[in-house]
Design goal:
Elements (H helix, E strand, L loop, with lengths): L9 E8 L6 H9 L17 E6 L3 E7 L9 H16 L2 E7 L6 H12 L4 E6 L6 H13 L5 E4 L8 H10 L18 H16 L4 H4 L1 E11 L2 E10 L2 H8 L4 H18 L2 E10 L7 H6 L4
Bound molecules: guanosine-5'-diphosphate and magnesium ion.
The site of guanosine-5'-diphosphate has 19 residues, from helix 1.
Amino acid sequence: MITPAPRTTHSGFVALAGRPNVGKSTIANAIAGAKVAIVSDKPQTTRRAIRAVATGADWQLVLVDLPGVQRPRDALTERMQRRVERELADADGCLFVVNAEQGIGPGDRFIARLLRSASVPVAIAVNKVDRADRARTAATLQAAAELDVAQEIFPVSARTGSGMGALTDHLRSLLPPGPFYFEPRQHSDLPESVVLAELVREQVLARTREEVPHAVEIEVVELAQVREGLLRIEALLLTETESQKGILIGAGGRMIKAIGVAARRSIERELGIGVHLELSVRVKRHWRADERLLDRLGIE
Ligand SMILES: Nc1nc2c(ncn2[C@@H]2O[C@H](COP(=O)(O)OP(=O)(O)O)[C@@H](O)[C@H]2O)c(=O)[nH]1
Ligand SMILES: [Mg+2]
């Protein structure tokens, strides 16, 4: 057999845009084939521009799951806003995600305007087609076309995988010739401590409501291999107030226990090894405005 000469590789960055909750993180995970970005039904929970990496024989696609765009309010949201602008300017393409079931609304039109002024090729994913009937999906596809921002529009379900192959193929076609930026088996650019903190945060998001999900941050303070196949993780759950701390601990410690059990299972599933997870809750009143802490937590 003749070994083929090495082909040129293609690589590049695709920024994910879209209203909160349309399924950007779920799409990034589906394309990367790993849980890179946490998924939540609470809006505005992505704090870091997470890069999800998918690699083929001669291509590497890096998806940037952007934090939600909102009016700058504090150091945290300001950092997120600046990050969005920078990532869009650097991207080779943009995947604009909309919701098939809800159709196109003012929020989508606002984003479409932003994207029209950024000079990157845009594709639209009309996601959650598993939740919409044929007529509803057709109407959203039509409305998406009328936004007049995208060259291509794909009906998909990140949950079932329907349509995801065609979408991934299209995104690959946007990639210019270029080197691999990540090891082929790497699915994300986040340091391990941040990935683990995010998996804990996902369980907090799943169990809290109103302002609490937004008031909590997780800091992994210790990460140690106890022995082959067993990792010990110690993490702090930071809240802004005593009452939020009380909610996280829960009556008789039930809430923190439930978060810990679920987070340990999810980390074990991702890493494929045993985990000993220790959580404690601490009030840190102004963590959202603490630039040094934001640095440490990987929020650029
Ligand atoms: N039914 C259905 N739900 C989805 C799909 N994609 C995402 N979701 C759900 O929609 C919610 C928001 O998803 P997420 O990826 O966090 O959205 P993001 O805020 O845009 O990143 C989560 O509860 C997901 O499980 C899909 O294709 N079908
Ligand atoms: Mg997200």
